[in-house]
UniProtKB/TrEMBL annotation, chain A:
Claim: Repeat is one of the keywords in the record: no
Family named by the database record: Belongs to the ABC transporter superfamily.
SUPFAM superfamilies (alphabetical): P-loop containing nucleoside triphosphate hydrolases
Any one Gene Ontology molecular-function term assigned to this protein's record: ATP binding
Protein name: ABC transporter ATP-binding protein
Automatic annotation (TrEMBL), chain B:
Source organism (scientific name): Lentzea indica
Signal peptide (from-to): none
PROSITE patterns cross-referenced by the UniProt entry: ABC_TM2
Residue intervals passing through the bilayer: 20-40, 158-178, 202-227, 233-254, 266-285, 321-343
Entry protein name: ABC transporter permease
Main subcellular localisation: membrane
Length: 303, 347
């Protein structure tokens, strides 16, 4: 990946607040059109990293290139090319969804017609004339994303867009995010939902305590983990003694409803189970980013 | 230009859809205008009422002159009782050629007025009875003095105050709420200057000030309140606009320091309320002690008030605008400059 084709280049960026190293030597690049996720628990330094890239904060050291330019100090030439979604409540007072979009569009000299397109994109066309404070949390979040997109930027930054949303609203938002990527936008987004990063992102940077611990596609991160696959069966299909004796099973344990086998060679285990006709209630769970995080930090993931 | 227009329209819509702001911009100052206007309406206009028992040429002459208001009683005791109770300052009792006045000792001013008037009429009747022509004559004529009827100073005062309140609060609360809700951050991330966004809010405040002016003056001119505008009333328009700019700048300064809307509200009140009382919003400053009058001159609202009084009711010309305008512009420049220095984008 050459730098000219990179939407974002971050080189050894550091930022401290007193004793706290909020960002402690972070480097990565984001390609044009990529869906890039920064994953980490609260306080990991995700937001500060994002704000430095957006040009809202000056890093103590290190370099940021955004579309080949420096975002700090405030780079007016760059601003129309980036879209930043802020927290769900940053709207003008008492305006309807459509008026919010028109007003934010006006800051960029965008024609009023764009507002309708954006509402369509985020699925709020029927809420065009609702005032912002009457929308649900998920709808406000989508409106907020629409406001970030209203001037048709090349890169979109989203800071925890799915935080505090119910599962249905989160899934709706995933569709919106995919639709944005299909329009050819580069998306840089932070989340503390591991499952979400795994589903949405082309590449994920796992961040904790100001540092990037790992960075790759979700599949590669998980594959490189050498974590066991968990095979779960309905309880009583197989005794725990028989299960432990199967070729490839490293460990077996049972609770009131199910029997779980851990294995690093799932193929022979599954075929052995099939031979015995013991596939009732079968579930196979391979390692997830959660296991990657556990492995990297030595502690449970706490969102 | 379209950006500015769209923004101004957005601010305007935000303003008129906010019922609390509308209340404090229009109804709240109007309440003061109406309450004070009604309470003070008859101050100084009251004629003195006295009790009268009996009738005769002197009583007829008194009644015709309208110098006193006469309340007839048939019973002498009842009339004197009224005076004893403090309801009336004096009772006039006529027994043929003899006139007795019983007056309350406590109210010497009114009693003296009554005695003087009655005496005058008695002397006049006596002189007429002698058939001699009077040696001395006098004529009287009304003179408009500098002291004003309450509604005449209340309207310019409350209007200036209302404009100041709405401009200070408009600027301070907008700034603080935008900072808290990260709207300022959004503006900072867009290729526009904060100045152009804030000036669209200022435009709304200026429009509001003109509507306040029209509403308050319109209501004060109702016969119930009886405001009489001078011919040069339209000179109030530039004063309203300059006042808006000056107090908007003050609001920006408050908004730069306050962290929450509540703090901004409290700070704006602390700035505006004492200034309103000391600047002659609710009573004419020329009745205040001299030191207070001097103190009040440091407030821009005092000068706005003076200007408003001069052009709205005192009928002064454009020269009356010079001093207030210069002070408001100077205040706006200095405070606006400080506000821009201490302006903060983020919490």
């Amino acid at each position: 990946m050459t730098e000219e084709r990179s939407a974002v280049v971050v080189r050894d960026v550091r930022k401290s607040y007193g004793e706290l190293k909020a960002v402690d030597g972070v480097s990565f690049t984001v390609a044009e059109g990529e869906f890039f996720g920064i994953l980490g628990p609260n306080g990991a330094g995700k937001t500060t990293t994002l704000e430095i890239i957006e040009g809202l904060r000056k890093p103590d050291s290190g370099e940021v290139r955004l579309l080949g330019e420096s975002p700090w100090p405030r780079n007016v030439k760059l601003l129309p090319r980036i879209g930043v979604q802020l927290q769900a409540s940053s709207f003008f007072e008492k305006l309807t969804a459509k008026e919010q979009l028109q007003t934010f569009g006006a800051l960029y000299g965008v024609s009023k017609g764009t507002a309708a397109d954006m509402l369509e994109l985020v699925g709020l066309a029927d809420k065009a004339n609702e005032q912002e404070n009457k929308l649900s949390g998920g709808q406000r979040q989508r409106l907020s994303i629409a406001c970030a997109l209203v001037h048709d930027p090349d890169i979109v930054f989203l800071d925890e867009p799915t935080a505090a949303l119910d599962p249905q609203a989160r899934r709706n938002l995933w569709d919106v995010l995919r639709a944005i990527q299909e329009r050819g936008k580069t998306i840089v987004y932070t989340t503390h939902y591991i499952d979400e990063a795994e589903i949405l992102c082309d590449r994920v940077a796992i961040m904790d305590e100001g540092r990037i611990l790992a960075l790759d596609t979700p599949a590669v991160l998980v594959r490189g983990l050498d974590a066991p696959t968990h095979v779960t069966l309905q309880k009583g299909v197989l005794s725990i003694v028989d299960a432990s004796a199967l070729d490839g099973v490293e460990e077996a344990h049972e609770n009131e409803v199910s029997l779980t086998l851990s294995t690093r060679r799932p193929a022979p285990v599954l075929s052995a189970l099939a031979e015995r006709g013991a596939l009732d209630g079968l579930q196979v769970r391979t390692a997830t980013l959660e296991d990657v995080f556990l492995n990297l930090t030595g502690r449970e993931y706490r969102a | 230009m379209t950006a500015f227009k769209t923004l101004s329209l957005a601010m305007f819509k935000g303003f008129i859809r906010d019922k609390v702001t509308l209340f404090f911009t229009f109804l709240f100052p109007l309440m003061f205008l109406v309450i004070f206007g009604l309470i003070l309406r008859d101050v100084g206009a009251d004629k003195t009422r006295i009790a009268v028992v009996g009738d005769g040429p002197i009583v007829s002459a008194l009644r015709e002159s309208g110098a006193l208001e006469l309340e007839s009683y048939s019973d002498e005791n009842a009339a004197v009782q009224k005076v004893k109770d403090g309801d009336l300052p004096a009772a006039l009792i006529i027994r043929g050629q003899q006139l007795d006045v019983r007056f309350a000792q406590s109210d010497q001013v009114k009693s003296a007025t009554v005695l003087g008037i009655v005496n005058g009429f008695v002397d006049k009747a006596n002189l007429a009875a002698t058939g001699q022509p009077p040696r001395f004559t006098f004529a009287s004529e009304k003179v408009e003095d500098a002291s004003l009827k309450p509604i005449q100073y209340l309207t310019p005062g409350i209007l200036s105050w209302g404009v100041a309140v709405s401009a200070v609060f408009g600027a301070a609360l907008t700034l603080v709420s935008w900072r808290r809700k990260q709207v300022l951050r959004r503006i900072r991330l867009a290729p526009v200057s904060a100045t152009s966004v804030l000036s669209s809010r200022l435009l709304v405040s200026a429009g509001v000030a003109l509507v306040q002016g029209a509403t308050f003056v319109g209501i004060a001119m109702l016969p119930l309140f009886g405001l009489k505008l001078s011919g040069s009333w339209w000179l109030a328009i530039p004063l309203l606009l300059l006042g808006t700019i000056a107090f908007f700048a003050l609001g920006m300064l408050v908004g730069a320091f306050a962290k929450t809307e509540e703090a901004a509200s409290a700070a704006a009140n602390i700035v505006v309320l004492p200034m309103a009382f000391l600047s002659g919003t609710f009573f004419p400053v020329d009745q205040a002690p001299a030191w207070l009058q001097t103190v009040s001159k440091i407030f821009p609202l005092r000068h706005m008030n003076d200007g408003m009084l001069d052009v709205l009711v005192r009928g002064k010309g454009i020269e009356a605008l010079l001093m207030p305008s210069a002070i408001l512009v100077g205040f706006a420049l200095v405070v606006g400059f400080i506000a821009s220095r201490v302006f903060k984008w983020e919490e």
